[in-house]
Amino acid sequence: MFTRVRMSYQESAPCVAVVGVTGAVGQEFLSVLSDRDFPYRSIKMLASKRSAGKQLSFQDKAYTVEELTEDSFDGVDIALFSAGGSISKKFGPIAVEKGSIVVDNSSAFRMVENVPLVIPEVNPEAMSGIKVGMGKGALIANPNCSTIICLMAATPLHRRAKVTRMVVSTYQAASGAGAAAMEELELQTREVLEGKPPTCKIFSQQYAFNLFSHNAPVLENGYNEEEMKMVKETRKIWNDKDVRVTATCIRVPVMRAHAESVNLQFEKPLDEDTARDILKNAPGVVVIDDRASNHFPTPLEVSNKDDVAVGRIRRDVSQDGNHGLDIFVCGDQVRKGAALNAVQIAEMLL
Ligand SMILES: NC(=O)c1ccc[n+]([C@@H]2O[C@H](COP(=O)([O-])OP(=O)(O)OC[C@H]3O[C@@H](n4cnc5c(N)ncnc54)[C@H](OP(=O)(O)O)[C@@H]3O)[C@@H](O)[C@H]2O)c1
Known about the structure:
Blueprint: E1 15-19, H1 24-35, E2 42-47, E3 55-58, E4 61-64, E5 66-67, E6 78-81, H2 85-97, E7 101-104, E8 138-141, H3 145-161, E9 163-172, H4 179-193, E10 212-213, H5 225-237, E11 244-251, E12 258-266, H6 272-280, E13 285-287, H7 299-302, E14 308-315, E15 324-331, H8 335-348
Parallel strand pairs: 1-2, 1-6, 2-5, 6-7, 7-8, 9-11, 13-14
Antiparallel strand pairs: 3-4, 9-12, 10-11, 12-15, 14-15
Helix pairs in contact: 1-8, 3-8
This protein binds NADP nicotinamide-adenine-dinucleotide phosphate.
Protein name: Aspartate-semialdehyde dehydrogenase
């Protein structure tokens, strides 16, 4: 990790491009870059033709959004991508060819062999040797937001007692589906309260005052793509092809931040007090676990926060001895689940 500096603009700092800058994650990129005083020599704001010419303000300076084209990456050291999988698939390799290090938020390259899939607190070693100035471009993938939030809490426990099986149920916010989904939830809420039929453009069914199975395509095995991302990405990030993971992913009408119920089975015994202590000391994790006042993590409390919150830490009474735990995790998936994680990766490139 680099030492933070007060002034972000530096002659020796990298040239940065933000691809998808007008979107939910793109806007969060700007906020995180600014909050963390990320050093940059120049910054390019890229989006689709629709947004070209739009004015954006960043650190008291006006920028014009440019249309993403094949020439966008000339001289760019670090390209932060969040414009969807098809854009990443097309423009990611072009950027790498031009010498940029691409940190990609889409699922396009996550499971590609030799593309590091990184949560800085969990597996920084996966991207060792990749640095700005190494003379060539590279691709690094940001994991799925639900995977990041889950593994931020599960990994410190896994390191101590080795997780052999993990059962996850998610409660996922509108923000995970982008800026337009957030607008739709707000609009539908008004419409339902006014007795009007809800507008369903982003999701095929009523979202306000409802919940439904995640909108990702359902696969032949009955799981949806979001669920299988959690299964496969966990194995890659933990470098453990044997860990058994199953997930049920649900969209809930929460504006921002995902919640997840996580059941863990361990090879070695791990009691709940030790687990609580481990989590209290884990980087990027806060424990909110107040049984007396029934106060546990909520999406509202973690919205716009960097840390993932963990609570409901308790022995799983369905498992023998101390070989199972239940935990409840909340994290801002636009932030730690996307923009913050990617900027932390970018910091490790310096
Ligand atoms: N939202 C999350 O919590 C989250 C978490 C992890 C990963 N991700 C991933 O991040 C990506 C973006 O998600 P989001 O939620 O930010 O979506 P979003 O709010 O819909 O934003 C999409 C962005 O992509 C840009 N874009 C679309 N088509 C483009 C094109 N042809 N050329 C250049 N730019 C184009 C849009 O620009 P215009 O405004 O010009 O259309 C906009 O800036 C997706 O791959 C998503 O899976 C999202």
